[in-house]
Amino acid sequence: MSDKVTTMVLKVVDLHCDSCYKKIKKVLCKFPEIRNQEYDEKANTVKITVVCCNPEKIREKLCCKGGKTIKSIEIIKKPEPKPNKDEKPKPKPKPKPDVLPGRIRILSNKDLL
Question: Per the domain annotation, does 84 fall within a domain?
């Protein structure tokens, strides 16, 4: 399986509280899959970057370890890249003729009308 980079947002009870801040930091440091941690004290959120094959398992483990300190965990999915509008449409293939080269086609009365 290939490892995927996923971004998660943890909504925390209160990052201004020293014990809550320390608990979240301690829990996040226990996971080697977590690469980046960005703390937003005004919004009481922590944005983390996770490198693993299954982010759902990490989410469940964080909920168990964090306890009541973590309100919710949201997994942010990357938007799919849009196709380029500058690409030229492919030319339509030329229709094949009914008659093969070197052969004569006999027309009936229906074909003439």
Answer: no
Name the helix (H) or strand (E) containing 55.
helix 55-66
> Is 16 within a domain?
yes
78 DSSP β-pair partners:
none
Looking at per-residue confidence, does 100 or 45 come out higher?
A: 45
Question: Which neighbouring-strand residues pair with 7?
Answer: 49, 76
Which residue range is the domain that position 46 belongs to? 4-76
Nearest to 46 by CA among 9, 81, 73, 75: 9
Tokens read off for 53: 């094959």
pLDDT at residue 47 greater than cutoff 90: yes
Q: Please indicate, yes or no, if residue 102 is contained in any of the structural domains.
A: no
pTM: 0.63
Which one, of 86, 33, 39, 80, lies nearest residue 60 by Cα?
A: 33
pLDDT, position 84: 66
Rounded to 5 degrees, φ, ψ at 80 are -70, 140
SS3 of 60, please? helix
If you average pLDDT over every residue of the chain, what do you get? 81
